[in-house]
Design a protein that fits this description.
The complex is a heterodimer.
Chain A lengths: L1 H10 L1 H39 L5 E5 L10 E2 H9 L3 E7 L1 E3 L1 E3 L13 E5 L7 E5 L7 E5 H7 L6 E5 L5 E10 L11 E5 L1 H9 L4 E2 L1 E6 L5 H12 L3 E5 H48 L1 H9 L4 H40 L14 H28 L2 H6 L9 H24 L2 H34 L3 H10 L3 H38 L5 E5 L12 H9 L3 E14 L2 E8 L2 H8 L3 E3 L9 E5 H7 L6 E4 L7 E9 L8 E4 L14 E6 L5 H8 L9 E5 H44 L1 H9 L4 H37 L12 H28 L2 H6 L2
Parallel strand pairs in A: 6-11, 8-10, 17-22, 19-21
Antiparallel strand pairs in A: 1-13, 1-14, 2-12, 3-13, 4-6, 5-9, 7-10, 8-11, 9-10, 15-23, 15-24, 16-17, 16-23, 18-21, 20-21
Helix pairs in contact in A: 1-9, 2-7, 2-9, 2-10, 2-20, 7-8, 7-10, 7-15, 7-20, 9-10, 12-13, 13-14, 13-15, 13-22, 14-22, 15-20, 15-22, 20-22, 20-23, 22-23
Chain B lengths: L6 E12 L6 E12 L3 E5 L6 H8 L7 E6 L2 E2 L5 H11 E4 L11 H5 L1 H5 L6 H11 L14 H14 L4 E5 L7 H18 L2 E5 L3 H4 L4 E6 L2 E7 L3 H12 L12
Parallel strand pairs in B: 3-8, 3-9, 6-7, 7-8
Antiparallel strand pairs in B: 1-2, 1-4, 4-5, 9-10
Classes of the chains: A alpha+beta, B alpha/beta.
The complex binds adenosine-5'-triphosphate and magnesium ion.
The site of adenosine-5'-triphosphate has 12 residues of chain B, from β2 and α1.
Keywords (chain B): ATP-binding, Nucleotide-binding, Transport
InterPro entries (chain B): AAA+_ATPase, ABC_transporter-like_ATP-bd, ABC_transpr_LolD-like, MacB-like_ATP-bd, P-loop_NTPase
GO cellular component, one term (chain B): membrane protein complex
Chain lengths: 839, 256
């Protein structure tokens, strides 16, 4: 039996290559994700262990829940120095510092931090050029920052810190061992200690951390315990090794999430792969019906027939897994290299490794997917009565009732899971529901295939080749359906996401034109490191005084803790101005300026917490002891301001930053917002991270992030669609083989090569467009369901991405044409006489 | 030189060799023949004598190794794929032994297929005549799977005729049919030649089938070795028997 299996495999190798390719691509995605994240994780681990290589023990302020740690004092540094066994101890100052480039724009990174420090002279930094900073207006730059910004010793550089723009003279440039420009793509600089303390911590004689080295003969652990004993419980004392591990773990946690996302998309690609393999095996089994029946009539048992097909699947799965794993290692390595050299991270890669998880998951996934896809056709093959199969090789048109009923049930189950998932906000249920629903629709496709294909085909069948192509595509509804369903999966997911994002955009736009009565919005650009940029209160006062401004208010924001609950709080400068610009309506109490011990909150938050006007609430702000506030008013649910506590302006002094994060401006009646904008903008000359936008620009900026999300998803789903295209090619290639004699006949009676190609192309386009139409419909349904479920989260409008949907349809048609190229050429090249004689 | 008046297709010293070197097989060894218009010609000969090869070469389905082939005024030899395709579509009709029809098309669509491929209009009058003659009026909307073997062959005949080609080639058109259905098809072919002036060339193994023809050409080892005009089935059978005799080596080629 094994021999027969391998023989039949080899005789059909070309047909199997395409379906194996589907597995290969899926496995490649899986193993590539593992290799990429593994490489990056090890690289980051290396990065931090080299960053803390010189640190034996590190002291930092104890992190208390919800509170910003108090900086360390100069006394603490002295205390550490006095501990026996300490060879040296240094106070470090570190905080956000962003340099402004020569083009006047703030220099950004793609994730790596931008910070300033005090120049201690005894870290790992080595002066490459110039000298250390000595005066208050001097700075030394990290080599990577110097290169990125094009700064040289003697240049001037402007820097944003806790304080607005300040200009320094570059006295030197430093790098790291081996001439490395940065440890991991960070942009750093160092000042004299007093300047660093003032700009980065906002406090004199304060330090962010203390690093100590052990004297000869003292172990790191012993030193850690000695320092901890000396300083008491208000400090975190760790060995450098622990610190490195903790920081690497933190990044690696993020990478793990990234890995899950990639694996999710790999899963979708494999899911699509299952359709393709299922189809290939069905076709192969159908073509081999006679052969299998012969085996049966020669005494092979049903089990043997099943195992011969499954064995085939195992062999294909094994080969595809090996190839996929190899390709995945290549892709993972490539992506890691791109990440380190082009991603602006300048990360030194640890060697590319193949983690065990990659190997195990590749084989597990590759083999399981293939075997699962082959089992159904195998079962069917075993059920064929030998005599019936010997008589007629062609598979009779089996009725579609069973598959349709099953499909409806599966779809219903998926829909229910999806509904429950939304209700319980459970992601696994939502995703599971979507996948199950997609399977349900896939099972329903054969029934839909006939009417829909003939509808789509009608548009393309103005000539005889077109008509033949259309007839061919509805010849085997199951095959057409599975092929189209594979394409449907990718398109429906993209369409669903697209519907949600369009609806979100539309909701925001409606909100902005309806309830948001502000003309200008002042906000800081989002940053990867730390918080969004803020600006000084005095600037807001100047804005208020600007010609043409009728009212302006702003807020400082921060997270606050109520018990164990973290909430978002805004310390608002002018409650009445906010009331009018946000069109807030009171539900309870009167919307009026808050006293220092009062807060306000929205209706839903009040219901959730069970608070009402007069309730007392204890909040832990970032600084100081917990404070008790009384609820002064509750406002009616508003889309503009939801989920946030409003605190009195004075509370901002206990926030991590007392500065204004966002401000809103209303202009005088009859005055053009653009004119006022021109007058307001110069006030922020020293705050290049702050932008002043009119309402529509603000909306555009807010919604433009959706485009990025959509693009990312499109890129990640591209593989699933690519696999679906392979499926179309596969189906067509198999059809061409099956219909060799027909093609020969057509050519014999005078069909030109170009006409043959057109016929195949029409068939291909019909299948692809059918898949796309299904995908669009299912995607719309998914999208609308999601939007309905998110109604309470502020997506109040439903928007349909018509233009995008038309694009997908066009892409599908193009995909159809492209997929047809090879099969069409093959069909056109057939030798007429051989084709007619083909058995 | 061209196929002069009265000749629908002509082979001039046609050689056809398959393969090369030791494995070379000469299927046609210098065949020259004129096939007159409006005549029903049968080609006979032992298996492997080159009947199908000759027909394929005449019909532009295969190229010749040496010599020339003409269909009507068109010199077939030397035509490229496009020219050959158009020749087959416009000037040649085909009836194969089996698998003549496309399963996705109805009988009517199959019949008019060469016309619709060429984007030509169906001559309704002629179509009706053809349908009437083959007796398929009530089967036009059926799919091939819904037709018997004889009906399928009659559809194929109708398709071959409907575009009024220069020549209709039929390779053992009755090979798969019972004698009753076969007789119907043969009668129809003879009628097309005599009443509609259609030139028909048929390859057959069956002396009885050959007896429907106006002229029977005998092939052996790639040579034309004999021919009979309007023979009876017995005469054909007799000639075939002599053909098998070893001494019958292209001794007489009358009427060539
Ligand atoms: N494609 C080919 N390759 C090699 N040899 C071929 C090919 N086609 C035909 N032949 C050979 O050419 C010779 C003539 O074949 P042809 O098919 O014309 O015979 P035929 O008279 O039609 O026989 P039959 O009555 O069995 O159909 C045979 O010897 C055959 O083996
Ligand atoms: Mg033959």
């Amino acid at each position: 039996m094994l021999k027969a299996t391998i023989k039949s495999l080899l005789s059909r190798k070309l047909r199997l290559v395409l379906s194996a390719l589907a597995v290969v691509l899926g496995v490649m995605f899986v193993s590539g994700s593992f290799v990429l994240t593994d490489t990056l994780q090890r690289s980051f681990t290396d990065l931090f262990s080299s960053a803390y290589a010189d640190v034996d023990v590190s002291v930092s302020p104890k992190q208390e829940k919800g509170k910003q740690p108090e900086p360390l004092t100069a006394q603490a540094v002295e205390d550490v120095k006095s501990v026996p066994g300490v060879a040296s101890a240094v106070g470090n100052v570190q905080g956000s510092a962003r340099a402004i480039g020569k083009n006047g724009k703030v220099i950004t990174t793609s994730g790596a931090p931008r910070f300033g420090a005090n120049w201690t002279g005894n870290g790992q930094e080595k002066i490459r050029d110039g000298r250390a900073p000595q005066a208050d207006d001097e700075v030394i730059l990290g080599a990577y920052l110097a290169t990125t910004g094009g700064f040289k010793v003697g240049d001037e550089v402007s820097v944003l810190t806790l304080e607005p723009k300040k200009t320094f003279k570059v006295t030197g440039v430093y790098d790291y061992a081996g001439g490395r420009e940065s440890l991991g793509g960070e942009l750093s600089m160092a000042f004299t200690e007093p300047v660093a303390q003032q700009l980065l911590l906002g406090q004199k004689d304060a330090y962010s951390s203390i690093t100590a080295t052990a004297a000869q003969g003292t172990s790191d652990e012993a030193l850690r315990d000695a320092v901890a004993a000396k300083l008491g419980s208000a400090y975190d004392v760790k060995t450098g090794e622990t610190l490195a591990k903790e920081q690497a773990d933190q990044i690696n946690e993020g990478l793990k999430f990234f890995n899950y996302v990639l694996l999710g998309f790999a899963g979708i690609a494999l899911f699509v792969g299952v359709f393709i393999i299922l189809n290939t095996f069905s076709i192969i089994v159908a073509q081999r019906t006679r052969e299998l029946a012969l085996l049966r009539s020669m005494g092979a048992s049903r089990g043997q027939v099943i195992s011969s097909v499954v064995l085939e699947a195992l062999v294909i799965g094994l080969i595809a897994s090996v190839v996929g794993l190899g390709a995945g290692v290549g892709v993972g390595a490539l992506l890691a290299t791109i990440f380190s050299s082009f991603g602006g991270t300048n990360l030194e890669l640890a060697g590319i490794g193949v983690p065990m998880t990659a190997v195990i998951s590749s084989f597990a996934v590759g083999m399981i997917v293939t075997v699962v896809a082959a089992v159904m056709p195998a079962l069917r093959a075993s059920r064929i009565a030998p005599v019936a199969a010997m008589r007629e090789a062609a598979t009779p048109d089996r009725p579609l009732t069973k598959i349709t009923v099953t499909g409806a049930l599966v779809l219903a189950a998926g829909g229910t899971a999806l509904g429950l998932g939304f209700a319980q906000a459970s992601l696994p249920l939502i995703f599971g529901g979507i996948l199950v629903a997609l399977v349900g629709v896939a099972l329903l496709t054969p029934v839909l295939a006939k009417p829909m294909v003939s509808l789509i085909g009608r548009l393309l069948s103005w000539s005889m080749p077109g008509l033949l192509g259309r007839r061919n595509s509805s010849r085997n509804p199951r095959r057409t359906a599975i092929t189209a369903a594979a394409l449907m999966v990718g398109i429906s997911l993209i369409t669903g996401v697209s519907v949600v994002l369009t609806s979100a955009t539309k909701s925001i736009e409606k909100l902005a034109s309806g309830q948001l009565r502000t003309d200008l919005i002042i906000s800081g650009e989002g940053q990867f490191d730390g918080q969004p940029a803020t600006f000084q209160r005095e600037v807001l006062t100047q804005v208020e005084k600007t010609d043409g401004v009728s009212a302006a208010f702003g807020w400082a924001s921060d997270g606050v803790l109520q018990g164990d609950d973290r909430m978002f709080a805004a310390a608002v400068t002018d409650v009445p101005a906010m009331k009018s610009m946000f069109a807030l309506q009171p539900k309870d109490g009167e919307i009026a300026p808050l006293r220092d011990d009062q807060i306000a909150l929205p209706e839903d938050l009040a219901t959730e917490k069970g608070w009402s006007v007069g309730s007392t609430v204890t909040l832990q702000l970032a600084k100081g002891e917990p404070r008790t506030f009384t609820v002064a008013f509750v406002w009616l649910k508003s889309q503009v301001l939801q989920g946030a506590l409003v605190l009195p302006e004075s509370a901002a002094s206990s926030f991590r930053s007392n500065q204004i994060g966002q401000a809103f401006v209303q202009v005088d009646q009859g005055v053009a917002a653009a004119d006022v904008q021109k007058r307001v903008e110069p006030l922020f000359a020293d705050n290049p991270e702050i932008t002043v936008q009119d309402r529509s620009a603000f909306v555009k900026q807010t919604t433009s992030q959706f485009d990025t999300v959509l693009l990312m998803i499109q890129i990640l789903l591209a593989l699933a669609i690519l696999i679906a295209v392979l499926g179309v090619i596969n189906t067509l290639a198999l059809s061409v083989i099956e219909r060799t004699r027909e093609l020969g006949l057509l050519r014999a009676i005078g069909m030109r090569r170009a006409q043959v190609m057109r016929m195949i192309t029409v068939e291909s386009v019909v299948i692809s467009v059918f898949g796309a139409v299904l995908g669009l419909l299912v995607g719309l349904a998914l999208g609308v369901a999601t939007v309905q479920a998110l109604k309470d989260q502020g997506i109040s409008e439903i928007g349909f991405p018509w233009a995008t949907m038309v694009q997908y349809l066009v892409v599908a048609a193009v995909v159809g044409v492209v997929a047809a190229i090879l099969p069409a050429i093959r069909a056109a090249r057939l030798n007429v006489l051989d084709a007619i004689a083909y058995e | 030189m061209s196929a002069s008046d009265g000749v629908a297709a002509r082979a001039v010293d046609v050689w056809k060799t398959y393969g090369s070197g030791d494995a070379a097989v000469t299927a046609l060894a210098g065949v020259s023949v004129d096939l007159e218009k409006s005549r029903f010609t049968a080609i006979m000969g032992p298996s492997g004598s080159g009947k199908s090869t000759l027909m394929h070469c005449l019909a532009g389905l295969d190229d010749v190794t040496r010599g020339e082939v003409w269909v009507g005024d068109t010199k077939v030899t030397g035509l490229k794929d496009r020219g050959l395709t158009d020749l087959r579509r416009d000037k040649v009709g085909f009836i194969f032994q089996q698998f003549n029809l496309l399963p996705t098309l109805t009988a009517e669509e199959n019949i008019t297929l060469p016309l619709s491929i060429g984007g030509k209009k169906v001559d309704r009058e002629w179509f009706d005549v053809v349908i009437e003659t083959v007796g398929l009026r009530d089967r036009l909307s059926h799919r091939p799977t819904q037709l018997s073997g004889g009906q399928q062959q009659r559809v194929a005949c109708a398709r071959a005729l409907v575009s009024r080609p220069e020549v209709v080639f039929a390779d053992e058109p009755t090979g798969n049919l019972d004698s009753q259905s076969g007789a119907e098809v043969l009668a129809f072919l003879r009628k097309s030649a005599h009443e509609f002036g259609q030139t028909i060339v048929m390859v057959t193994h069956d002396p009885n089938a050959a007896s429907y023809a106006d002229r029977v050409i005998f092939l052996k080892d790639g040579h034309i070795v004999r021919e009979l005009l309007s023979p009876t089935a017995d005469e054909v059978l007799d000639t075939m028997k002599h053909l098998d005799a070893p001494d019958f080596e292209h001794s007489a080629v009358p009427g060539a």
